[in-house]
């Protein structure tokens, strides 16, 4: 077996915080609807940084930076990724629609589109709404969305942790949206 050497951080050619702020972002906004765990919030910041997400909308009880427990998992991404706070998620969705975004709830709904069957359109702007760890996306918010996306699951559990869900969904969106740039 050949030897594999782990790369050092200095060999990974990552953007600096300043370069990240100036970089062209994907036309995608993440909306956190009543997410209570500070660690989940931080993890979503870190994943959003990894995939050049435009912004995060923090809604309701979702905590905002700066906060040491968010920082513990965000590792500084709370300073690179733009974020905005909305008292009510419905206000955030209304604003997104006014700004021309297609808003999709990540939720198990009648008529959901399975993530692996998702088709995105070049030139469109998207937002994904991720819900509370116990209750998911509020029904009132789902009602405002343009559709629902569901992650196919094959085991006995009916849901994934919100930060895991964010990772899977943002990876899929990033792959498709980056492909439009080529």
Automatic annotation (TrEMBL):
Protein name: RNA methyltransferase
The tRNA/rRNA methyltransferase SpoU type domain, residue ranges: 28-171
Top-level taxonomic group: Bacteria
Database matches in InterPro entries: Alpha/beta_knot_MTases (IPR029028), rRNA_MeTrfase_TrmH (IPR004441), SpoU_MeTrfase (IPR001537), tRNA_m1G_MTases_N (IPR029026)
Species annotation: Bacteroides caecicola
Entry GO MF terms: methyltransferase activity
Pfam families: SpoU_methylase
Gene Ontology biological-process entries: methylation
Record's keyword terms, sorted: Methyltransferase, Transferase
SUPFAM superfamilies: alpha/beta knot
């Amino acid at each position: 077996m050949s030897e594999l050497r782990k790369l050092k951080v200095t060999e990974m050619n990552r953007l600096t915080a300043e370069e990240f702020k100036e970089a062209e972002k994907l036309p995608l906004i993440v909306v956190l609807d009543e997410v209570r765990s500070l660690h989940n919030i931080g993890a979503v910041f870190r994943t959003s940084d990894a995939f050049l997400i435009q912004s995060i909308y923090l809604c309701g009880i979702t905590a905002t930076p700066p906060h040491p427990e968010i920082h513990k998992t965000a590792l500084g991404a709370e300073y690179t990724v733009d974020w905005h706070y909305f008292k009510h998620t419905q206000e955030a969705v209304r604003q997104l629609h006014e700004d021309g975004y297609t808003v999709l709830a990540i939720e198990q709904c009648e008529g959901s589109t399975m993530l692996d069957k998702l088709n995105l359109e070049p030139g469109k702007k998207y937002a994904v709404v991720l819900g509370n760890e116990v209750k998911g996306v509020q029904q009132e918010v789902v009602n405002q969305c343009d559709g629902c996306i569901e992650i196919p699951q094959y085991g006995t559990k009916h849901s994934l942790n919100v930060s895991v869900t964010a990772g899977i969904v943002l990876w899929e969106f990033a792959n498709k949206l980056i492909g439009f740039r080529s």
